[in-house]
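User: Teach me something about this protein's shape.
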Amino acid sequence: MGKFIAGMIAGLLLVPAAAYVYLSQGMAPVATSAPPLPMERKLTHMALRARVAKEAPDHPPISAEESVYLAGAQIYRDNCAVCHGLLQQPKPTAIAQGMFPTPPRLFPGKGVSDDPPGETYWKVANGIRLTGMPGFKFSLSDVQVWQVSLLLANSNQLPASVQHLLTWGGEAGPAPANSMTK
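Assistant: First, the predicted structure itself:
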């Protein structure tokens, strides 16, 4: 029995020691072009889903209507499009191509329109660690975060005026800075 317990203790000490050596000797993939660690995506998505489910607000304090979408579209163009792109943008931005994980394109296809607005609000306000997604709760007002969150949650049913503002080369001017690739 004593050998069994000694083996268990040695095993418990060996795992953290091996992890320390792996990390401290520079063997872990940390470059954005490197492949993910085993189970990295599964574990980080699991943690994110649990945290958002615990903290995301249930109901927006403002209505989802055209004026809110228009305000959200301008916020999106100014703060989000440089990574997430615009409607009809031919390819991901140069910044997005250099990030790991690559930021999702939010407008082609369903984007995040299947996510509850509170989930999108949480992600916009707080950001997501180790992804490049910044938190905007210190640079945007609560209303602005809700405006862009409602825009994204309803991105599959936006009025033409809002779609025009979000279109590549639309009314708000050319594409965001650094959006063209070489």
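Now, about its shape. The helical segments are 2-24, 40-55, 66-79, 81-84, 94-97, 117-126, 142-153, 160-166. The two ends are 66 Å apart (CA to CA). If you'd like, I can walk through any region in more detail.
User: That's plenty for now, thanks!
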